[in-house]
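Render this sequence as a predicted structure.
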Amino acid sequence: MHNKEIKEVLKELNSGINGLTGAEAEERLKKYGLNQIKEIHKISVFKILLNQLKSFIIYVLIAAAIIALLFGKTTDTIIIMAIIILNTILGFIQEYKAEKSIQALKRLAAPTAIVIRDGKEKLIPASQLVPGDIIIVESGSRISADARIIESSSLKIDESTLTGESTPVEKSSLILKKENVQIADQNNMLFSGTITVYGRCRAIVTSTGMKTELGKIALSIQEVKEEPTPLQKKLKELGFHITLGIIAVSSFIFIIGYLRGQNTLDMLLASVSLAVAAIPEGLPAVITITLALGTRRMIGKNALIRKLSAVETLGSVSIIAADKTGTMTKNEMTVTEIYTNNKLIQLKNNKLFYDEKEWNNKEASKLFEIASLCNNASVNEISDPTEKALLIASENLNLKYEYKRIKEVPFSSETKYMSTLNLVNGKEILYIKGAPEIILGMCKYIYKEGRSILLNSKEKERIINQYSEMAHNALRVLGFAYSMDNSSKNLIFTGLVGMIDPPREEVFESIKKCKKAGIKVIMITGDHKLTAQAIASQIGIHGKAITGEELEKLSTEKLSEIIEDIDIFARVNPQHKLKIVRALQKKGHVVAMTGDGVNDAPALKKADIGTAVGSGTDVAKEASEMIIMDDNFSTIVSAVEEGRRIYENIKKFIYFLFTTNLAEILILFLSLIIGLPLPLIAVQILWVNLVTDGLPALALGVDPTNHNIMEKKPRNQKESILNKKSMINLLTLSLVITFGTILLFKYYLSSTNLVYAQTIAFSALVIYELFNVLNFRAQEKTIFSKEFYANKYLLGAILLSFLMQLVIVYFFTDIFNLIKLTFIDWIIIIAVSSTVLIFQEIRKLFKNRNIYI
């Protein structure tokens, strides 16, 4: 509608300048529906609960529980189901506050609207608006629907939540001839959810509900499909391979036993025991608890995690696509430079500086007198940010002026200036501010050193050059003048004021850290290209910049080809942001998208890590995985560091669990192959996997951060958790545990009974694993280094697990089919089990000398 005459718009919408009748509005309400954001996919508590069970390892555990139940192994079934329930509850509690984007969008809608019905102004619920309605919009009101401006007076709209542009946009009814105009440049249109900062207007509603730009965003949020995280993909792959291994080994054992003529039922039970040994029962619970503990630590660092999976994903982030306004900048216009008396003066920390020396505030008093009096802002209320910045600067410099206003000529896009007539000490003085080139063209004199002199061409050229330099640095520049005789013909030029939405102080260092960590930071903004480039340069982002208009012309394929060469995206709309995120993901990047506005929501939801700032809109928060509560960009870097630490720790306990579970399989497998009875029964294996594996593994999950963790590049998404190098090391450790346990079992079997020998094997396996967990604490450090003992929780977990094993052996013998051991038995068990730690220490010694074994 922006490129049509008002008469055409009225005709197309079958409306008139006096609006619709009540009957017409009622008919249209039936046709178009309520002016509300509709919810397509409602949040289901049951769905959240069901999502916790979507894991291949959980499927395997459920299958194992069913098999154990069929064979009468009730205790085994109860233990396995308890693990599944614990994991489900933990995950559900963390993710109960699921996505509520659409509810937040609904809250953005204005509750009431002033409309012309039956030729009269009426206040109606905003939900009753229909296309064709004529609405009245005044200063401070929220826009209720998309509308074409019919007539306006000094109208300025804050569209930052929709477009990302930090300064209010001047609006008018003038037609825009160009057909394809970005939303941010449609200056004759109003958009639902934006706020009137200044002025008033009359407009005709063109779209309501889901047809508005706000509604389109709501629809795009709901259509965005969430992708599994890197860890979820790897755990699915790991679970699949574990399952194949279980089926293969269990089947092999059953076939060997059957061919040897052993009892079929006994062999089935042996196969089930082997399956139980192979399944890392504690893994889902340990991962869930580790991620949950990570979220608690992040809250202490002002990062609120809404989804557990986001904690790990943070560690693999390779690109942060950051919204400029409110995230990298302070989201407030600030005066930074003034030009008066032929001097360019800096405003820093509420003081004026010229040539790095503090400058007398009184020298700028005339300039700030005009800035304060030719001004309609209020420091404590919603006002035009530019005018508010002038007032704040004046107050901070203790330059305050209060004189009676007699008359005002409001700013307009046609004149490009505002003027006020004030009574100052009994005299009428005209104050004027506006576009520098306009103000300068109206001036006859220039204010210098407390007096006015004739303004010559040389002086004008100097001022124009200074204005150009300030504008090139992305400052918003205003010119100021006054007249002592209430005449615009004898204006005295006073100076220029430059202001900008400044970057946050800590952002530069944060981006520097990101570069060191191999993470690229991209700026995405609704602001103009020049402004974006200037801010980017100040915070350490240097590179190619393109606009939304240029982006619109690129196909998805072409954008994917060049996306990695672009550092700044300016003047973009919501669809562009989503397109950018998709192109980055297509190139294999893990993307963290930061933002605060409604316009960011679809991209936040699509990104691997949607990161909203605490002061942002509810829509952005509910569409994200993480909320930065202090609006501090450096908090994102801290969160990435925490994510990397957690992934490294997850790898540690997966390695630990792999060696122990593989050892359990090999113990049973080799015992059956060489004709020995089963050294372990199913309930004993479940105890090992759940308790003695679980507690130390969980303690590994809180291992301290490696000091150089942010000096490494983001890990490759294709990197397997278990690679060839790690597999060889883990297999070796498993074999040490296996042979030691079988030798002890065979030795005691030859001199005692089966139950005694099984108790020895069971206890030896537990102690083996407690020694083995130390191998993964500081994988490159020996037990003689101080860093090795940094994790006090791990040492506590080892001690607790050992005590629990003693309790089982001496107080629950019947349940676990055990016999009480002697002190000598424990000495033998500890001596043999320590070999796994001794072996790894020898391997580290050779590795440090570049001798690999």
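Summary. Confidence is low (pLDDT under 50) at residues 97-106. The radius of gyration is 35 Å.
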